[in-house]
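Hi C.,

You asked whether I'd gotten around to modeling the 370-residue construct. I have! Everything is below, sequence then structure, no commentary in between.
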Amino acid sequence: MTDTATYPTRRVDWLELFFDLVFVVIIKRLTDELHGSPGVDDFVKVVGLFAVSWLAWLNVTTFMNLSGARPTDRRVPVLISMSGVALIAISIPEATSSAAPLFAIGYSVARIAIWPLWMKVNRNSPFGWVRATIFGPGFAVLWLASILLPSDIRMWGWLLLVIGEVVFTASGFSSAGLTVAHLLERVGLFIMIVLGESVVELILAVHPDQSAIAWAVSAGSFILICAIWWHYYQSGEPVSERMLEASSGVVLRDVIVVAHFFVVLGLIGIAAGLGSAIEHADDPHLHFGSVIALGGGIGLYHLANVIVAWRYGLGARDLAVLASIGVAVVAVFILGASWPAWVLVALLLVYMTIDAALAPWVVRHFRRTS
């Protein structure tokens, strides 16, 4: 028998909203890393740093979900964890060089601060305290030890730590006792933060005296972000509320943890690419790195939709159709890397139109099967 999550209505706590504010800076700085002409190292850096940040967010979010209604003893530990995440945000521009020790210290603080609270949650579990200790001070000690590694091999050590944490988290994820409504609200608010950064990126890229083409690209970019908002909150969110009510822990993990990791990464790439598209709207073509940010970003967003559709029971043939659309969009972007910005933005608008047209069909399928 699979474990299932509880589904009462429960509002997000003000402490959680305050904790999320530091991620506004993280998303902004990660987007900045992909702005302009990013290279392979920049993409790898953003994926790695966001993976660590995502784990820190999940650590607090799942604890707050399991701990129930507003116990006062969690305030100080969560605020201390927030200070650790703030150090992560501060270190991002130089996290792979001079600020590497600050990054490792910040992440360690973010993890250790919540450990005593996890010990309380798992006090009646035979092995829960072991997992909590490994996931908290266990990994934190390894991150702190990485400061002593030579800079040329430190990144490889971090890569192993991230892989270890991802595997450890995925293998131990259980929906037992989790409130699905709260998780959906938390992740929905996090996506709103990322979309907010996209709006900020677009507005800051616009200049009052820019050309007509740049204004057209700006308008198309804004419509695209609105379309993504519409797709996520008007189609995806209602389906998730219904489908996750009695889902297993594996489904909940893949939808909340895995799929939304790709959603956020995709939106970061899209925001950075659109900002560059507006600024270079009059150029013959965008820098290849910006094209990859745009095409790869929409590809990751589409991949997340495929993962969710798969976990919600969409048939193999329909999944193949859905996946092929994403592959086609990414391929067109790579092949059309020499096209001007307005063409690429127009292609994304066409993609979102197709996605919006398919959404009711997918929703009807899930209604029949739920």
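If it helps when you're writing up: The chain has two domains: 14-172, 180-369.

Thanks,
B.
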